[in-house]
Specification:
globular; alpha/beta; 206 residues; 7-stranded mixed sheet
Length: 206
């Protein structure tokens, strides 16, 4: 379990571009030819965790927990299974907000603008990895999106970034009564990806 040590505003947030350069360097902890891990060490926030490929499925949760290369939690194991079943050669786990917190209740109350800005740079990079030019984004945050008022706003920022990359949004599994996309945990590995109108969803949220 990861409990935040405090607000991320008290940290010196690493710029995504610089953290990405470091993540390309050889590591004694994991195989950088297989894994994309930014920043490339365990800390209070994470931009990206995934496998390398030409056709990744970008799964979007709310915020990171404890997973790391070669040490995936059950949620990310499910993400990888669903991605491979649906014809993708890799997966990228991204999050609406980058702060690590196993329990969403422990997330900071206010959005750190600096951390969010770097997270959006990370999202744009993740989208750019699709060689076909139409990246697939799997909304998978469940009802946890309601835990903080700033989270839906962060998703709207993601939509704007995605529009420039011709992103296509999907969900998997049955949505909640409120329309929230299903969380990856407990999904069947053969769960199909269904088109998801994320803007309409946000307009009707709450």
């Amino acid at each position: 379990m990861h409990i935040p040590s405090g607000d991320t505003a008290l940290l010196e947030v690493a710029r995504f571009d610089e953290a990405l350069v470091e993540a390309q360097e050889p590591s004694s902890d994991y195989d950088v030819s297989k894994w994309l891990y930014v920043p490339n060490h365990y800390g209070e926030y994470r931009y990206i965790l995934g496998t390398r490929g030409k056709k990744p499925l970008i799964c979007v949760g709310v915020n990171p927990s404890t997973a790391a290369p070669g040490d995936l939690d059950n949620t990310l194991k499910s993400v990888e299974r669903v991605a491979l079943h649906n014809g993708y050669d890799s997966f990228i786990m991204f999050n609406v907000y980058a702060q690590r917190a196993t329990r969403p209740e422990d997330m900071e109350r206010s959005c750190n603008a600096a951390l969010h800005a770097e997270n959006m740079r990370a999202f744009d990079y993740a989208l750019s990895l699709d060689r076909e030019g139409s990246p697939a984004v799997w909304a998978a945050w469940g009802a946890v999106i309601e835990k903080r008022d700033y989270l839906p706003w962060c998703v709207r920022e993601m939509i704007e970034v995605g529009e420039k990359r011709n992103a296509r949004w999907f969900s998997a599994g049955k949505r909640t009564k409120q329309g929230h996309p299903h969380h990856p945990l407990y999904l069947r590995k053969d769960s199909p990806l269904d088109p998801f109108d994320v803007e309409d969803y946000l307009d009707n949220l709450g």
